[in-house]
Amino acid sequence: MVRVTPFEPQPVGAAAPSSTAERRGRDLLDALRHVVAYEAAWLGLVDPLTQECRCLARVDMAEAAPRLAEEPGGVDDGADALVVTRLVLAGRAVGLLVLRLAVTDVARGRAVDRLEGLAPVMAHDIDPLRSVLAVAHLVPHITAGALLVADGRCVGLPGLTPDALLDRASPVVTTARRQIVEGALSSTFLWPRGDARAPSGHVSITVVAAPAGAPAGSTAVATTAAAPDLQGLTARELSVLGHLVEGCSNHEIARTLGIAPRTVAAHLEHILCKLDAPTRTLAAVRAQQRGLYVPVPS
């Protein structure tokens, strides 16, 4: 349920907006004047993390407007010219628009019809997940996505199928968070389905630091996608590559994976051949560039 919270916004035309979303909100109200004749306006944005609606911009509208919007039918106190339009995208509440119209009943009906037609466009324009979804959909063949929040939550992205790999308790999420904390702006790696032997194959994980315009408290965007061409690398070799990316020596890899050092050396020989890399350093670089490694679990 969306909650409208008391918030004293700056009126349109005041100081520069503090965020891209607020700037878009003010521009939207300015542009709306040319389409619908209104005396006053209040535009709110629904935070997808808290479901609270805060004000983006207002024009000659008292703070009581949000409370009026919560009343049945959206009008109160004889405000028969007050029109409430809920901005929704694919069933997801994005914002709330409250207008006071100075028009006749007939013209008011036309204005309401016009607002209903414009609502999806306005919702898209102020969508708080707009930049997040844009980043997520840059990932080829994306299958799932989540917004990682500083408090530990993972909020699924609309329009994408949920994936247990992107749940709060998943080691994938722990690894993704670690990479962002360590300073990576973006990273792509592989994760085995089932267990370390990848009985169900691998999935490609991409994590990107939260873009400008993302909801407050967001830290990163994580996605899953179909695995790329593995270039003949086996599940064990992908795991060895993960340790190589971490800078581990042959003995450290052997101890961690519970195999003999000579077995590690054999795996590395195969890896260098498959990645066409003359050195282990170049193999590690290419593995990172191509997202062809399974990170060492955090």
Describe this structure in words.
- It is a single chain.
- The protein is α+β, with helices and mostly antiparallel strands.
- It has helices spanning 20-32, 65-69, 105-126, 130-136, 171-181, 235-245, 250-257, 261-274, 280-290, and strands spanning 3-4, 38-46, 52-59, 82-89, 92-101, 142-149, 154-156, 186-192, 202-209, 218-226.
- The strands form two sheets. Strands 1-3-2-5-4 form a five-stranded mixed sheet. The protein has a five-stranded antiparallel sheet with strand order 7-6-10-9-8, with helices on both faces.
- The protein is elongated.
- The two termini are 36 Å apart.
Q: Rough shape?
A: elongated
| CATH third-tier fold name of the largest domain | Beta-Lactamase
Name the CATH homologous superfamily of the largest domain.
GAF domain
Assign a percent range to the helix content. Answer: 25-40%
Instruction: Tell me the count of domains.
Output: 3
Give the C-alpha Rg: 26 Å
Structural class: alpha+beta
Name the average pLDDT.
Answer: 87
Q: For the record, what CATH class of the largest domain applies?
A: Alpha Beta
How would you concisely characterize the structure shown here?
Helices cover about 35% and strands about 25% of the residues. The chain contains 9 helices and 10 strands. The strands form 2 sheets. A 5-stranded mixed sheet has the order 1-3-2-5-4.
